[in-house]
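Is it possible to get an amino acid sequence alongside its tokenized fold?
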Amino acid sequence: LRSRSGRSIINGNWAIDRPGKYEGAGTMFTYRRPNEIRSTAGESFLAEGPTNEILDVYMIFQQPNPGIHYEYTIPEKPVDPQPPNHRPEGNAVNGQGGYDNHRNTHQENYTPAGGGRDPPRLPDHQVPAVQPPRRPRDYNWKMAGTTECSASCGTGFRSSSFRCVARLNQRQVSEALCDSSSKPAPQQEACSLQPCPAFWDIGEWSECSTTCGLGMQHRQVLCRQIYANRTLNVHTGRCEHLERPEITSSCQLKICSEWQVRSEWSACSVPCGLGQRSREVRCVSNVGDFVPDEECNMNLRPFDVENCDTGSCAKSWFYTEWGNRVGPTLIHFQ
């Protein structure tokens, strides 16, 4: 995920960030990705928004493109409500859309600013009733401290917490006794701890180089360290105290199928001279089933047809039957 200015928000620079929260474009993104070999779940990131700049999503893949699913929301423009004292200026013809000024003399009076009705006027001899003093609340919210830091190293966050207490003895009571609308909003502050140690960030294994038999697979291993809630690539020397994971490994999805000669050579196709003979050759899986020839190595396929020579044909005289007419007899030599 990158801004148009070229700043990487998630991943970038041929490096893979760890799952977590990343700030950018005026909002906070939550990044998730699987870290399991051959996982079918895809990577995802989510932000509540709104964003304040255009963002570009780049995708690098080794297998066929699995596709992208995305959702977004567009805020609706709020409709301005009419002020309470607004009266429409309609056409007063036939008494529609207007109002009679003389009728208004018997209605309640409005303040010039439209701020509400004037209080009713009391007779001169009547004294307004005195409101009783408000009784102080028996329970109130009190700050109880802060939560633990959200990170054990690097930069995290902690929030203030409040509890409901009795005013007289400051003992904690059920929150239902306090006014929920007056509960102070928790204040969040950053908490800086010691820097996080460098670590090896291990990528997923690639596909096996062969579909059967012994092959090789690879993975990316980077030395990473967290700074200010960002995971950055660092020199491999910072991870020298850790054993470096292997970046290559042998793999075998299944045992390869092999060619089998299923019959002896047949008899030569001619009794003498040059002919052909054949035999049955099949591709057989490791469990003994016949499979298509493409599953076996075509370069190693045994011949199933070959020439055969049964020797020279014998030479002899042969002749036809006597003809009915008197004449010379044709004698053929072979």
